[in-house]
Amino acid sequence: MANQEDIFKKVISHAKEYGYVFQSSEIYDGLSAVYDYAQNGVELKKNIREYWWQAMVQLNDNIVGIDAAIFMHPTTWKASGHVDAFNDPLIDNKDSKKRYRADVLIEDHVAKIEAKIEKEVKKAAKRFGDSFDKEQFLATNQRVLDYQTKVDGILKRMGKSLENEDLADVKSLIEELEIACPLSGSKNWTDVKQFNLMFGTKLGASADSAMDLYLRPETAQGIFVNFLNVQKTGRMKIPFGIAQTGKAFRNEIVARQFIFRMREFEQMEMQYFIKPGTQQEWYEKWKEKRMKWHLSLGMGEDNYRFHDHEKLAHYADAAADIEFRFPFGFKELEGIHSRTDFDLSQHEEFSGKKLQYFDPEENKSYVPYVLETSIGLDRMFLAVFSNSLKEEELENGTTRTVLKIPAVLAPTKAAVLPLLKRDGLPEVAHKLIDELRWDFNVIYDEKDAVGRRYRRQDAAGTPFCVTVDHQTLEDETVTIRHRDTMEQQRVKLSEVKDIISKEVDMRYWLQKI
């Protein structure tokens, strides 16, 4: 476990050192679970958002985007169920005075059992070598089967208790599993209580006439209340989707794990409106489509898995998460939910306005069903960043720190380096930069020996370094170096743009979908 913690600490310090993520208002000692994206972070975030938007909106002729306001009429949140049911089960440790989410304590306990399964698999793989069959081992090894039964039993019981709002049983489960406070080791717990996560605010000139509002806890409702506006103005036929990226706010009492769980975060959501009765087919289709999108980035198939929900929200008839292997274990990255007609029906009821679609083929009106895909942009950022950070042993006995961010998402695509600060080399380098910057984010770097500059760009995640030297002046060729392989090739100045383009253009990456 310590090893995982060390890796995660490295991720956090690297994110700060290389201008990706800063603690918010750090000069005032920061604000818990609130972060700022720095100069490289804002570029990576923008590129991830763009990669999602292109795949979701630009490449689908029946999906359009909107950008709804953060403030919404307060009745929206009554209709959506957030006012009454948007709660987290919290538990306090009486000795350490620390507050935890009860379900997260149980999930962390389960993660430890899952780590034991991984350990058994690794041991067996070592023992059997090439003849090792992982599937068979997981299905037949008694110790693994016992661990798995334990895991399934715990999750099933927790799901059931939370669904029935049986908080006393959630506490009993924590006590039976002998879960201790991670900080103090104490097992002296309070009862489990529900806590609403919405941030309240006021709208109006004076305190007496001000209206109570909420900062939106999710972006989906902005899509639902605009369903008819979009459908009519865009003359959309079912099935069609509405996509949106934007900020959401949750008063997370137990925010932790860096940018994984924040109080202010960004979501990338798409609500797909479909004919009632077709939801199972679309659910499977979108699960497959979304997994393909993730895999197109080449971050390793074994780092993803589907997790079907034991506990379904009262309005859902199917729900799964795409989980990613973060430095602290497998956790939710994206949710795919079959939401039935709950949302539109609720808004119809609370607003008194019809939110129906007239189907010309069926010659009747109905409230569409909704299939949702929802991914946290900040979590996606953390997945990309943590997975990309590598320490590599080199042949000459030295090590290098390299951030192997998928080139399509890298904040800076190329660094142009003049070998020396004289002899007209900087002028040629600047001229190349001026040409490239129309297509890519590029930087100029002339400080230190060229080897140290390579290392610096590796650690910052820049896919290419282009070196201008004396030979450039004679034959207009430069050395282009690839971050991941460290290979260098001599190419014509006129070819540089195309070489970079082939590696970083979204078209080449999204074609894998």
UniProtKB/TrEMBL annotation:
<feature type="binding site">
    <location>
        <begin position="260"/>
        <end position="265"/>
    </location>
    <ligand>
        <name>ATP</name>
    </ligand>
</feature>
<dbReference type="GO" id="GO:0005524">
    <property type="term" value="F:ATP binding"/>
</dbReference>
<keyword id="KW-0963">Cytoplasm</keyword>
<feature type="binding site">
    <location>
        <begin position="376"/>
        <end position="379"/>
    </location>
    <ligand>
        <name>ATP</name>
    </ligand>
</feature>
<dbReference type="InterPro" id="IPR027031">
    <property type="entry name" value="Gly-tRNA_synthase/POLG2"/>
</dbReference>
<keyword id="KW-0067">ATP-binding</keyword>
<dbReference type="InterPro" id="IPR002315">
    <property type="entry name" value="tRNA-synt_gly"/>
</dbReference>
<dbReference type="GO" id="GO:0005737">
    <property type="term" value="C:cytoplasm"/>
</dbReference>
<keyword id="KW-0547">Nucleotide-binding</keyword>
<feature type="domain" description="Aminoacyl-transfer RNA synthetases class-II family profile">
    <location>
        <begin position="177"/>
        <end position="418"/>
    </location>
</feature>
<feature type="binding site">
    <location>
        <begin position="265"/>
        <end position="269"/>
    </location>
    <ligand>
        <name>substrate</name>
    </ligand>
</feature>
<feature type="binding site">
    <location>
        <begin position="332"/>
        <end position="333"/>
    </location>
    <ligand>
        <name>ATP</name>
    </ligand>
</feature>
<protein>
    <recommendedName>
        <fullName>Glycine--tRNA ligase</fullName>
        <ecNumber>6.1.1.14</ecNumber>
    </recommendedName>
</protein>
<dbReference type="InterPro" id="IPR045864">
    <property type="entry name" value="aa-tRNA-synth_II/BPL/LPL"/>
</dbReference>
<dbReference type="InterPro" id="IPR022961">
    <property type="entry name" value="Gly_tRNA_ligase_bac"/>
</dbReference>
<dbReference type="Pfam" id="PF03129">
    <property type="entry name" value="HGTP_anticodon"/>
</dbReference>
<dbReference type="GO" id="GO:0006426">
    <property type="term" value="P:glycyl-tRNA aminoacylation"/>
</dbReference>
<dbReference type="GO" id="GO:0015966">
    <property type="term" value="P:diadenosine tetraphosphate biosynthetic process"/>
</dbReference>
<comment type="function">
    <text>Catalyzes the attachment of glycine to tRNA(Gly).</text>
</comment>
<dbReference type="GO" id="GO:0004081">
    <property type="term" value="F:bis(5'-nucleosyl)-tetraphosphatase (asymmetrical) activity"/>
</dbReference>
<keyword id="KW-0648">Protein biosynthesis</keyword>
<comment type="subunit">
    <text>Homodimer.</text>
</comment>
<comment type="similarity">
    <text>Belongs to the class-II aminoacyl-tRNA synthetase family.</text>
</comment>
<feature type="binding site">
    <location>
        <position position="218"/>
    </location>
    <ligand>
        <name>substrate</name>
    </ligand>
</feature>
<dbReference type="Pfam" id="PF00587">
    <property type="entry name" value="tRNA-synt_2b"/>
</dbReference>
<keyword id="KW-0030">Aminoacyl-tRNA synthetase</keyword>
<dbReference type="InterPro" id="IPR002314">
    <property type="entry name" value="aa-tRNA-synt_IIb"/>
</dbReference>
<dbReference type="InterPro" id="IPR036621">
    <property type="entry name" value="Anticodon-bd_dom_sf"/>
</dbReference>
<dbReference type="InterPro" id="IPR006195">
    <property type="entry name" value="aa-tRNA-synth_II"/>
</dbReference>
<dbReference type="GO" id="GO:0004820">
    <property type="term" value="F:glycine-tRNA ligase activity"/>
</dbReference>
<keyword id="KW-0436">Ligase</keyword>
<dbReference type="GO" id="GO:0070062">
    <property type="term" value="C:extracellular exosome"/>
</dbReference>
<feature type="binding site">
    <location>
        <begin position="250"/>
        <end position="252"/>
    </location>
    <ligand>
        <name>ATP</name>
    </ligand>
</feature>
<dbReference type="InterPro" id="IPR004154">
    <property type="entry name" value="Anticodon-bd"/>
</dbReference>
<dbReference type="GO" id="GO:1990742">
    <property type="term" value="C:microvesicle"/>
</dbReference>
<feature type="binding site">
    <location>
        <begin position="372"/>
        <end position="376"/>
    </location>
    <ligand>
        <name>substrate</name>
    </ligand>
</feature>
<feature type="binding site">
    <location>
        <position position="101"/>
    </location>
    <ligand>
        <name>substrate</name>
    </ligand>
</feature>
<dbReference type="InterPro" id="IPR033731">
    <property type="entry name" value="GlyRS-like_core"/>
</dbReference>
